[in-house]
Amino acid sequence: MSKRSKHRRHTYQCPELQVSDMSLCHGFQSVPGSPALSGQELELPNVSGRFTYTVKEATSMKFRRLMEKQALRYHSDFSEQIEELERILKHNAIHHEAKLKESGDSVKQAIMKCFDDVSQFISVLTQLIEEGRELKGVRLRLGQEILHLQKTAKEKLKAINDQANKILTQTFELHEYPIPRLFIVLPNEESTSLNLVDRFRLYFLCDCDEHTKPPEDRNSKGKVLPHYIHIAPHEGYDLVRPSEFFQNFGPYILTLLKLIKYGGSVAGSVIVPMSNALLALSSAADVLKCLNKNLGQQVDAAIEFLENLSEDLNRSVDGANTGPMMETVEVNQREAVEAVDIRYLHSFLKREDKTMALGNLFRTVTAEGHVKWVCLDHYNSRYCQSKFQQLKDFIKDNCGDYDEHTGRVTIRLDSSELAEKFYATLRSSRFVHELSVNMDWATTRNDVMNLQQAIERSNLFHLELDFGGRATPWSKRFTKRLGDPIWPIVASVRLQSLVLKNVKKLFEHTIFKPTKIYLKSLDLSHQNVQRPQLKELVKNWTSLETLKVQVTDFEWAFDFFKDKGPNIVNLTFRTLDNSEVSIRRNKDTFEIVSMSLRLQTLDFPMLFNSYPVRELAILRTDTVMKQQEKFYHLFEQFATLERLELECPALQFLYMLEMVQTKWNQYPSLQQLKLVDTIGENSLETINKQDTSAAVICLNKISTREHFEGSSDNLNWLMEHHGWKIRVLELDETFSKAQVRLLLSSIEQTQKSALESLTWYISEEANDAEFFKMMQQLLDRSQSLHSNVAPIAINIKLSICTKQNSSPLRRQVAPVARLYPLLTSS
User: Fold this and answer.
1) pLDDT tens across 188-197, in order?
2) Which of 264, 413, 436, 763 has its CA 20 to 30 Å from the CA of residue 329?
3) Per-domain residue ranges for the chain?
4) Is the pLDDT of residue 140 over 90?
5) Could you say which DSSP state residue 793 is in?
6) Measured between alpha carbons, how far is 249 from 346 in angstroms, rounded to an integer?
7) How does pLDDT run across 623-652, given as a tens digit for each residue?
8) What is the 3-state secondary structure (H, E, C) of 760-788?
């Protein structure tokens, strides 16, 4: 093989050049990065294509140089392309970097905002979690408080219901409590007083219910006339001594106000919210028009006032704020509700007409024997008016007396025939609840049996039976065989209270056995009962709660009843001189808790010193005036004395008042003083220990014909401060012109005059024209005031009598000529 053939053929392909010259390959090896040429094919990349060289065994330097140039050129092209690419990439990178940076900034801002939102959300969430924990705790506390309030509310409601139940079911001795028991107070919008306690008026409630429905209305559900408790159709009463009134009756009234506000059913009596109850009666809506507008607010105001008043009383006692009444003084309130004594209610009321029943209410008795006071509408709905008129006519024809409001009849019967007519009327009359009958003839057993049968078919609960001391024809032998004729009356299931007077040989032949007796009150204080019979009576009549007996001396009575009559809580001992001792015993322990004394003199047994005397009445004040030091010693002797009553003429009121006020401050237990003139039906009451003008005085009849020490000064005081209240005036020649001026001044200042009758005793020589002129002025002024107030003019009765003769003076004299048109016979 030749040298040329030893070279392999290499082919390099190039779009622009194809070389087959071996000489071109010389020096190719020197190209940096070129492969070693050993005759094989070499392929070099090119951006524009491929080229192929054929290399022989022998390389050519020329080719090498060419390749080197070509390589440099391609290298340069590559470098430029790379630089362009780098420039493009760099430009794109910068552009994208700016965009990325811009996007990154926006993303960063969004992230930061989101982070802020998340942080804020976390903060809020954390706060909510904390609040949730707090709320959970609050919810737990609220739940506990709600449970506590529910429990407290139930307890309060139960307490209110218990107290209201006691109020609505309590059974007083009905002849001793002849006044309505349900009453409330409401603000008086017309009052201008600056003292808050003076801005209230008292309103009585009509205690109507199923018992007032007539038979034809029993199933009507009250659609014709609603039958539930409501305010009585009456304008109400202003209060006298309001502070003392609220102290005594505040808890009682508060219980009724709350019961009225929320309504309910207690002790069988339906009580609806007062806003609905007032609409029950058109008459009540007319009379109480002002109350209908904002009654709910007035009830709330009264409740708030009483609760605040209780808090003030608590602070004054304890020296600190102890909370609302129902929470802090609940026990005391229950005691106050139970212990409230409504006998004294009338003394706290300003009353123009004292003849009308309180609240213009009427007393009824249910089939169960419960007393209810109802308004005229419900009273008329219960009773037949024709029978009602028949009873009134019979009582009027026989000179009896009928109190329509209380249902009390007082009558004297003088024959069996007249008694039988009365019994027939009584049996058909369901509106007679109390009967005081004087059987003024020689009664027989049949007469008593007829009375007993009439009682069983009537609606009586209280009977006063007086035989007038006449000898009854039932003999000792007759009584032993047939029994005591009085016994069926005593054992009546209808009567709750019985008073026996002047029954000869009462219970002497009665065989006492443990028998069911329905009587709760028995009055034998005007009846002589032998001690053996009295002992058997107390032993066997266990239902008695109140007993009044006539005794010879108090010490024997105390010793006798000390361990007898365990159920008797009210005991009264009366002696022949009308002295009385009333004892109230605890229902559970039967220990003496209070005592009331009515004594003729200041001399009484020392045993009274060992007991809590609450009330004391001295019936003869002449002994008081003569023994003042002994009288003052009573306050020290009776440290628990609360009420003092003295009987004296009205012309001694000022003297007795000043005498008591001299020492009153030294005895803090004494709360009330009452002076009573039983002859003139005058009275004075006060709780003020110093101010005589604060006394509340009621004057009916003033007479100057009786003279006492200092009577002239007392009369001047009465005429100046209370003269306008006098209804009947009886004057003698001692009555002066100065006293007439005081009386006229009192009338002018108050613009009121109650004068209805004037009797003037003068000497026949009296001829003082000025005096007669002043008396004429008194009559004229009183008459004009009557005409302004009364719908019918009231003519003042005038009698002018000589000192020697009580008949009216008939002779004509000039000074009294104008007085004669009003002259009436004595």
Assistant:
1) 877 777 677 7
2) 264
3) 18-130, 170-374, 699-826
4) no
5) P
6) 12
7) 787 788 888 888 788 888 889 999 988 888
8) EEECCCCCCHHHHHHHHHHHHHHHHHHHH
